[in-house]
Amino acid sequence: MFRSKDGIGKANNPRIRKYSFRNIRHDFKMSWEVYLLAIPILLYFIVFNYIPMAGILMAFENYSPKKGFFHSAWVGLKHFRDFFGSYYFERLIGNTFAISGLSILFAFPAPIILALMLNEIVTKWFKKTVQTMSYLPYFVSVVVICGLIKSFCDTNGVITNFVVALGTARRNLLSDPALFRPIYIVSDIWSGIGFGSIIYLAALSSVDQELYEAAVLDGAGRWMQTWHVTLPGISSTIIIMLIMRMGSIFSVGFEKIILLYNPLTYETADVISSFTYRKGLIENNYGYSTAVGLFNSVVNFVMLLISNWIARRFSETSLF
Amino acid sequence: MAIVQRKSKGKIAFDIVNYVLLTLIALVCVMPIWHVMMASLSAPAELQLNKGLILWPLGQSTLKGYELVFENPSIMVGYKNTIIYVVLQTALGILCTIIAGYILAHKTFVFKGFLMFLITFTMMFSGGLIPTYMVIKNLGWIDNRLALIIPGCMNAFNIIIMRTSIQGIPDSLEESAKLDGAGDLTILFRIIIPLDKATIAVLILFMAVAQWNSWFNAMIYLKSRKLFPLQLILREILIQNDVTQVFYGADAASRTDIYKPLVRYCTTIVATLPILCIYPFIQKYFVSGVMIGSLKG
To answer: Is B68 a domain residue?
Structure first.
């Protein structure tokens, strides 16, 4: 998707090597202002992205802030061994995959379905109103969303009352480990369904109208049109979105999780990123936490490469 | 004729179901916020007894909750801080993003490919939470506003959107400016920025909303309450259920219990309302923003 079309800055004279001193000097003379502008940008990425990458070495140390980065004791792979051998390892992997998997299964198709439904609407004002209303949750902050969930799922909350009316025991739904994932996924659908549908609606609007006319001439009904014209028309968009989503299957953001979970629900709610946060910034176990974070980053990176490779094989577009 | 009749009956049934379902979805999307809005206007005594969704203010509607919120120093300080962070970070961020996008769209710059790789690689791999935290700590930015303004003001994704958009500007404009002796800075500020207002507006919008809603960095980097953004205060009130900071008057103890739910609702609205008010008007921009980001990107 982001592959550059024009290649890298070409030397004016093809015989001169691109990074040769002469070429750089020439380029600098031509466009020194660009060099000047590039300095803060480069500095930013070095300081906030690349120095932390170097800081990953903490994962192999018993890092202590007093001794600092260069003087902390080197422990090699100890943190990794501890993590892989620990009771948490399986639980964290399992939870991460479960939450991500459920989200792909339920939260991923939701915007597609909404877009398909909206696509069938001819009344313009109605379509617009529904769209505007459905975008709203996207702009509500995570803190507020979690606050709402907390109050709705409280012992006396609106949702709890509803669930009790269906015949279950009254309790705080957020302290029930079995309910954490459903709550997480449903709230994800709520906040993302409208905004997520934008891209599919755009894809739908570019489906050739003549195809529908042809289908009608062939006697296709509503469902047949959806199945044979609409879905194939947006399938490439769906596939790309799905592949990109699969690439991040191992990364579940911690914001909503650390706002909603509690020790009672760790068994179903604790994921790698929330564990990293807890170990590192609450228990100050820096080295260990960095090791767990590194493991997560590496797996994410590999997943991204795989999904990008698949995307490139099956379609024109890829991330890089 | 008969066939047409039957078809249209099925179509009518389908349409009815579709309209009803979509209406329901739309209602479910706004209902929780509506509930909070109505609850925030309700009489506190009735509010405590309430068990269902609130469609209309309960009892004698009152603005008492809002009075308490606006009297409260920590919420007002949070509001001020949020505005500071949003304005400064968005201003800095958009400037840097435009510059980075311009450099990466530049025709001849020798290190363009190298810089592009450096920037896109950050989308794929990161040092992670703790090493980043350590960098901020070593910069001495713990409990400093800078920690919420500078880190995160740029990201690879926005830069690539910007770059793609700048690449879409016809070369001839830049070339004729160059023939007239314009340097890169002149081109950037006189040609690129005025021509790319739409993309810039979209990016500003997304950056501002993201910063308005963010809380995590504030939580880990800030220690003193006078620097807290609104979302962090909200977290105390909504998540940790702690309103003691909100009522620190002498008669607080007696009032706390009855006003507690009311204050929670009012704070939510106060924090969310600015965004809720503007988003319907700017939605056509963010639709185009999503499109630039995902398709052309």
So the answer is: no
Domains of chain A by start residue, with CATH: 1-51 (no CATH), 78-141+189-314 (1.10.3720.10)
Long-range pairs, B39-43, Cβ under 8 A, ≥24: B39/B261, B39/B262, B39/B265, B40/B65, B40/B66, B40/B262, B40/B265, B40/B266, B40/B268, B40/B269, B41/B65, B42/B262
Residue A13 φ then ψ, to 5°: -110, 120
pTM for the model stands at: 0.87
Q: Which residues pair with A61 in a beta bridge?
A: A74
* Mutate which: B7, B49, B110, B178, vs A, most A CBs within 10 A: B110
Domain span at B96: 73-297
What value does the mean pLDDT of chain A take?
Answer: 86
Q: How far is B248 from chain A (nearest CA, A)?
A: 22
- The complex's ipTM? 0.88
Q: Are strands A61-62 and A73-74 parallel, antiparallel or unpaired?
A: antiparallel
Phi-psi region of A94 (alpha: psi -120 to 50; beta: other; left: phi over 0): alpha
What is the model's pLDDT at position B202? 84
Whether B106 contacts chain A with CB within 8 A: yes
Distance spanning both ends of chain B, measured CA to CA: 50
Residue B244 has pLDDT above 90, yes or no: no
